[in-house]
Amino acid sequence: MRSLDRRDKAEKKLKKDDELKAQKNDQKESRPKKRGRPAKQPEPLADEKRAKLEEVIAHSKKISRQLTAFYEFFQQAWKKDGNDMSVYTPIEKRISISEAEIMLKALIQEIREEGIANADIERMIKRFEKYGPCLFTYLENPDIMPDNNEAERAIRPFVVQRKVSGNFISPEVMKIYTIHMSLYRTCKRNDVNYEEVIIPLLKGDTSEVLRLLGLKEGKPPPIR
Fold this sequence. Notes:
Number of strands: 0
Low-confidence stretches: none
Number of domains: 2
Radius of gyration: 30 Å
Mean pLDDT: 82
Distance between the termini: 45 Å
Helix content: 55-70%
Shape: elongated
């Protein structure tokens, strides 16, 4: 992160300046005066320059502190210590989505009162405020995980295929491939034999396909 690089550079400069000042003090106390012009030594930083470096360090620490606060809050979802936001805690012992959202809003308010450290954290907070309830769906649904890693793994075969082949020869081919890939992954997730679903699908028997997959038949989306 850029702020950490700036903080490291600022801390190194301040450390070097402190060493230089200590060295000059030692020379004044121990070195005897010599004739001739003394060798030119690097000058200590001016007070204004030191103040700017200290400001960079303080600002970087503020960024780290605010990011750590959010990280530790959401990391509770994966801890196995029995806390009431953990995915490993029995669902009846977890807090509700609304309670988790209240806690998140309290954390955001605390950081806003301190002063948001940079634009990246501001954008992150706006996303939290917009999608707050969606972040805690797992608290009340045992079949949902706190992250979307499983969904990303599910679409990975499609991404690999696209990378291997370079692309699809036509939009129609891509459409057919994505439909069959979606159906195959759905079958796999529901422990259904893909070949068994293909037969009623080719016959146009969508009701039988849905029955095999254990899905309910819903209303078709409106035509736009």
